[in-house]
Amino acid sequence: MDSNVLFLKYEDMYKDLGTLVEQLARFLGISCDKAQLESMVESCNQLIEQCCNSEALSICRGRVGLWKDIFTVSMNDKFDAVYRQKMGKSDLTFDFGL
């Protein structure tokens, strides 16, 4: 992958926000001590909470896997086929099972 591009995934943020914040700081070339990283994680958690509880963003609801409540089996099969076709050569991976 291009070292000028950092791919961040919501699922990774959901699983381990601290590691993701550290990864972002390294990518940006920012040196942070443990207290600063913890403060950033807390600020991010507060922002996520505010955004996901906003009426304007009600589809978010602050959880992963919401697509399972929206997609039918047929829709998921179609998505999987298109995803494999379009992304088959990519080394990006996503955890759709969360």
From TrEMBL:
Domain of life the protein comes from: Eukaryota
Family membership noted in the UniProt record: Belongs to the sulfotransferase 1 family.
InterPro entries: P-loop_NTPase, Sulfotransferase_dom
Protein name: Sulfotransferase
Group of enzyme by EC: transferase
GO MF terms, alphabetically ordered: sulfotransferase activity
EC number: 2.8.2.-
Pfam families reported in the protein's UniProt record: Sulfotransfer_1
Sulfotransferase domain location: 2-90
Keyword entries, A-Z: Transferase
